[in-house]
User: Which sequence fits this backbone?
């Protein structure tokens, strides 16, 4: 707080977060995205199980570009949340606590995540 007791304006876009902070924020964001995908996924599952016609409609819907983007977003959310969650579990058992090893483990998560997404995208679109 400033000397006058008023809060200071904090511009979050100008702060240079370390990779560990960015990974942590994205872990929270992907958790929210995964939670929001649950009702959508259940609705599509329910529609696809109602009959052959509805299944064909859902199948047709899934090949639309916007749907493919949403599916990729869901897959990325799952992969990021999974690998970052494993990293946080390792931190909970007192591994990678030092600054250097924490930064290295965060970069390992990013690299594994990118490799996994590249394999999935290659399998889905090529």
Assistant:
């Amino acid at each position: 707080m400033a000397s006058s007791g008023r809060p200071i304006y904090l511009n979050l876009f100008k702060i240079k977060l370390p990779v560990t902070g960015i990974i942590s924020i994205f872990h929270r964001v992907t958790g929210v995205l995964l939670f929001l995908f649950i009702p959508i996924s259940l609705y599509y599952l329910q529609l696809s199980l109602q009959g052959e016609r509805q299944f064909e409609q859902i199948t047709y819907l899934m090949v639309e570009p916007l749907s493919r983007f949403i599916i990729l977003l869901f897959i990325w959310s799952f992969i990021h949340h999974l690998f970052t969650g494993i990293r946080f579990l390792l931190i909970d058992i007192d591994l990678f606590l030092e600054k250097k090893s924490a930064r290295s483990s965060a970069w390992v998560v990013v690299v594994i995540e990118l490799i996994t997404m590249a394999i999935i995208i290659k399998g889905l679109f090529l």
Remarks:
- The longest helix spans residues 19-48.
- The helical segments are 19-48, 52-62, 65-92, 99-125.
